[in-house]
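<context>
A single protein, sequence plus fold
<entry> Chain with its tokenised backbone below
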Amino acid sequence: MTQSRRAFVASGSGMVLGAALSATRVRRGSADADIVLRGGTVFDGTGTDGREADVAISGDRISAVGPLLRTRGAVEIDVRGLAVAPGFVDIHSHGDASLAADPRAESVIRQGITTIVVGADGSSRATGSAANGFAAMFTRIERLKPAPNVASMIGLGAVRAEIVGNGDRRASPSELRRMVGMVERALKDGACGASSGLEYTPGAFAPTNELIALCAPLARRGLVYATHMRNEDDRLLEAITESIVVARGAGCGLQISHLKTQGPRNWSKLDQAFALIDAAHADGIDIAFDRYPYLAYATSLMNLFPVWSRDGGISAFLARLDTQSVASRIEAETRAKVELIGGWDNVQITAVSAAADRDAEGKRLGAWAASMAKPPYTALVGLIRRNGGNADMAGFAMSEENLDRILAHPRGMVCTDGGAFAIDGPTRRGSPHPRGAGSFPRVLGRYVRERKVLTLAQAIRRLTSVPADRVRLSERGRLSVGKAADVVVFDPARIADAATFERPFQYPVGISVVIVNGRIVLRDGQRSRAQSGRALRSDPKSAG
């Protein structure tokens, strides 16, 4: 017997054909609500199974949820056979990098993501200083009118760069006091946590005790320290241990960013990594982690080179390459890094800044070097020189089995770790990692429907209430009366990512409606002119 669409949507398994949306309008004066979504299977974001119900939206709020509502909407949309969920929350996004160029944030909205949390990996657009404060940044975001909501952490690397600079030295006591003061001001103005990027400069030069001091202001607000750890391959376990030491010393929660076991020889360390995380949780540490659903990471090509060689910035790095005794050590350590992830063809060049190197974008470094009859390391150094270090990569280094387990772990959640871009306009450039266009639909398609790593209800919770609670956004992440009207409607039988490493500029399929703060921004694949996102400040009193 064929399973009904409603049974499929409620259970999150099976295959049925997509449903077409239809809408009716009534006269504005006779409407009780602005929008009513009729007959969908509603998931409230808490992990409970879906139930057939109507959802009414008045202004920017959910005004009613229930079966066969008598409420009449100025716009009514038939969503029978589709899932209705809170708008997705991306806890680790780099979408702020391109919002000024294109506030539509197409690749974000078309995934059903209605809130992005930026300021990740130790880098934020504001630092909390008098000259570069979060209040002013949030005002700029409001004036920009982006399509998604935007919350931000304070980047501890950005703070260090402003006070200490890019060199490898300890902060003086007075510098440390100034840095702590900047974190305090940022949190007071609404920053939703603090982040570090300990494989990047200058964050890599911050000692553990500095991180503890900078994270201490998080504790009384119930906010978390999110860390791109010092290492994600051979010294992964030591890096997790240090992260736990920071959280314990500061008394704050810990969010491990994009948890991974990088390089085949480290894949077996996942059990030990989980053991450290579970033990810390049992010991009272509020610990969790996130991950994008792909087997390749993305970073700067500069990260192939050892951290010590990047001390002082790109000019100092290039000078070291010109000193033979130092250059030979840099080359040896860089080759070892590439060997760890499986060789030069496991490095894909994704973006460059020099026009002369545009042909390299999207190509594997080994094959690209061979096409020019150059050794790969020589080609890499040339690329770095010509681009002043401004070139990016994807590294293919992770295990599918481990990814399944990371997504399934009870303290795991989903992120994109990606930027915001479009298939047209100023943000279509390079060959970006497909996670920026496909992460959330990929989880719901590949890892829920196909691989059955999570149930549909479990996955929706990981995409909504869990990340919203983590960064104290109390009005987001749940579909219930009084909450902000951020809503996504999708077909669980059809939702899927379409972007690939070879063709990244492809939008996902299966998402029918996206609503941000009560305004329809996406419907049947068509974007409206509405850009109703807001700057979101954390509510440190909320605990979810």
Q: What stands out?
A: The longest strand covers residues 33-42. The CA atoms of residues 44 and 479 lie 5 Å apart. Residues 299-396 form one domain. The longest helix spans residues 324-340.
